[in-house]
Amino acid sequence: MANDKVYTDYFFDEPAFNTHDGGFIQLEEQNVPEQPLKVPEVLAPDKETDTDMYYTVIAQEGEVQFLPGQKTKTWGYNTDYLGKTIIFKQGKMIHITLKNELPELTTFHWHGLNVPGPYTDGGCHAPVYPGESSEIVFKCDQPAATLWLHAHPCPSTAEHVWKGLATGVVVKDDIEAKLPFPRNYGVDDIPVILQDRSFDENNQLDYLADYDPDGVQGKVPLINGTVNPYFDVTTQRVRLRLLDGANRREWRLHFSNDLEFTQIASDGGVLPEPVKFTHLMLTCAERAEVIVDFGDYKPGDEVTLYCDDIAILKFKIHEFARENVTLPDHLVDIPDPEVTPGTTPHQVAMSGMDEMVELNGKKFDMQRIDDKQKLGNVELWKIVNTNDKESGMIHPYHMHGTQFRVISRNGHAPYPNENGLKDTVSVNPGEVVVLKVWFEHLGVFMNHCHIIEHEDGGMMAQFEVYDPDRPQTYKLMDMDTLMNAFAEERGVKREDLNIPGMDM
Ligand SMILES: [Cu+2]
Fold first, then answer.
1. 392 found inside a domain
2. pLDDT, tens digit, for every residue of 266-278?
3. Domain ends where: 127, 149, 173?
4. What is the count of structural domains for the chain?
5. Protein residues placing their CB within 5 Å of the ion ligand 1
6. What is the pTM of this model?
7. Which of 33, 373, 404, 462 is most buried by a 10 A CB count?
C-alpha cells in the first residue's frame, strides 16, 4: 500500500490564496552577505531525574545583528530572538518555571502540547506579569512531534510573536527512536522556523507601522532568525523540522531542480506513511518534518529552498558518507477512535476579513465559553471558511488541548499529508473541513484562526472540556484587567493604549 506518488502541487485549488488580498507583500531576496543558518541551542534542564525534568523558560529582551548596520531590538526565550529548543521525553513529569523579564505581561502557550487548560496551556488566562514568574507541572504524554512555544496574551499575541517570542518544542518517544530517521540535532536534524519581517530605516521592528488587520508581513525572509542563510550539509540525509512561525504568511516550498523530499511527520507527530513531494505548502502554525536526500549531489554543489520563486535557504553540499536507507511503507499507527454515538457535530464558522473577522458571528470574549465537549467523548467538528474564493483568505484553524484527525475537505479525502495527528488545519475559502476531535485533559481552551492578527482581531472562541463527575470552576481573565495592565506597563493612559484591531 505504499504511496509512491510524488505530489507536485500545493493541494490548493488556487496556487496562492494569500495573494488575493490587496495587502499581500511578496518576499524579496536580500542583498546582504550570506550567513550560516542559526540552529537554536537546546535548552538545558535545570535538573533531571529518571522521572522528572526541570526547566526555566525566560521571556527576555535582546538585540540581534539581522542586517548590516544597527542591531535590532528583539524579544526571545532564554536568548535574544526566538528561543532555545526545548526537548521533552514522553512519559516524564515536566516542571517549568516561566519567568517574565520583559517590560510587560506575556503568556507561555504550548502549541500542540496535550496539557490541561487554561493555565498550563498558557493562553490568555495565564498572564505572567513583568518581573514575576509562575510554575507549571505536567506529564508529557503524547507521541514524538515537533511542537512550539509562543506568547498568547490576547489581544497582543501577534505583536509578541512578531518581536520574537516563539521557539521549537520537540517531543521524543521510543517508537520514533526506532525509525530510520536522521536525529543528530544540529547536524542532520534541524528546526527550520519560517518567518518574514520588515525593518525600518534603523533596522528596527515597527509592528504598528507595519500593521495590517489581515496579518502583518514583511519582505525579508527570516529563517531561524537568519537573513540570507545557508546550511552546511555533511550527511546524505537531512531532517528539517519546518514550522510556519509567521504571523500571516503561507510558505509554498520547493527546492532547486524540483528535488524530491519526503514528509515523515505533521503537527502531532509521525505520519502513518511517508509522503513524497516536490512542492509543499504550510499555513500559519503548521509543522512538517521532511527528509531531504542529497545523494545525487557532490561536494561543492548548492541546493536552494524557495518560497514561491524567492530563495530562502541554501544547502552547501560537503563530503558525506553514502547511505542507502529506505523508509518503511508504514511508519506508525495513528489513533482513530469511533465517534461517540448520539453526539451532534460542532459548528465553527470563520467569517470576514480585516477588522470584520468573527467566529460563529461573534468576536472573542475571554469571559464567554462558546462550546463544550465531554472528556472521553470523540466528536466531529465542522469548520467552515465563509470567505469567497475570489477574494478570500485561507484561515488556518487551530484548537488548543488536542491533536485531532482531519476527516474530509468539502466531502473529499484530506490531503495525503493530513492522515496523521494535527492541531492546525488550513481551511480554504468556501471550504468545509470536518475534524474528529477528542481530549485528554479538562480545561477551558481556545480555538481560532492562526493568522495571528485574525486571532487578536476576534476570530477566536473558547470551549470547555468537562467531566460531569468532576465539575471545575476556572478564573477567567477579562479584557479590562489585561488592558489596564498593558496601559500601566507601557506607561500610557488606557485610552491611549494603541493595540491595533482593538476597540478600547
Ligand atoms: Cu484567518
1. yes
2. 999 999 999 999 9
3. 173
4. 2
5. 395, 449, 451, 454
6. 0.97
7. 462
